[in-house]
Amino acid sequence: MKQIAIVEDEAAIRDNYADVIRRQGYQVNTYADRPSAQTAFEQRLPDLAIIDIGLGNEIDGGFALCQALRAMSATVPIIFLTARDSDIDTVVGLRMGADDYLTKDVSLPHLMARIAALFRRSDLLAQASASQVKSLHCGPLNLDLDRMRVYWHDTLIDLTVTEFWMVHALVKRPGHVKSRQALMDEAHAVVDDSTITSHVKRIRKKFLAVDSQFNCISTVYGMGYRWDEEHP
């Protein structure tokens, strides 16, 4: 049985989400604050974590918890579920390593669909890990599909699981435009267009951090994104 952690400081909200998720056949552990959740994660990682941003007296406690959990595991799916709906908070959440960012007005069926999509992706990753080592090369880019690592000019690029599969979707057919929906499908994520855009921006920044001349991800306005061969 998949184990889901819910970190939410408002008891009524926490219990409501936990009840709905348990009815879907998941095991649920709940936490009211960052310290208790982090201590539990250090003992045993959840299969998926749902985290609020404001936790008790810690205005950004959820961000700190996300960072800590991501340091423990690069693959545990993390969903921010919060009342904070600003673009800044969304971008920060994704930069912290979250796989999804939802606001609390999301419907419960929609939340369950997001959870199911992330678990489908996790299952596919587990299957890939059990298979033989595979890699994909495109110019100075090397994708190690078994270890889920991306190298640019032999330098490791620290991507989240969602970002890895988005890069893979673009690189496996250089020069071909991938729509936002196609990227969403191949990353096994259920997100909106603005979230895909945030992921792409974050991917670009990570490559630019190690190579200021990086310009291989092109935006094709009205259509999507394309991986171009490295320009001189």
Q: What are the secondary-structure elements, in order, as H or E?
A: EHEHEHEHEHEEEEHEHHEE
- Approximate shape: elongated
Number of strands: 12
| Rg, alpha carbons | 18 Å
Largest sheet: 5 strands, parallel
Strand order of the largest sheet: 2-1-3-4-5
Q: How confident is the prediction overall: mean pLDDT?
A: 88
Report the structural category.
Answer: alpha/beta
What gap, in angstroms, lies between the N and C termini? 51 Å
Taken as a percent bin, the fraction of beta residues is 15-25%
Low-confidence blocks of residues: none
Helix content: 40-55%
Describe this structure in words.
β7 and β8 (149-152) form a beta hairpin. The mean pLDDT is 88. The protein has 232 residues and is of the alpha/beta class. It contains 8 helices and 12 strands. 44% of the residues lie in helices and 21% in strands. α2 (34-43) packs parallel to α3 (61-72) and α6 (161-171) packs across α7 (180-186). The radius of gyration is 18 Å and the shape is elongated.
Quick description:
By secondary structure, this protein is α/β, with parallel strands linked by helices. The protein is built from 8 helices and 12 strands.
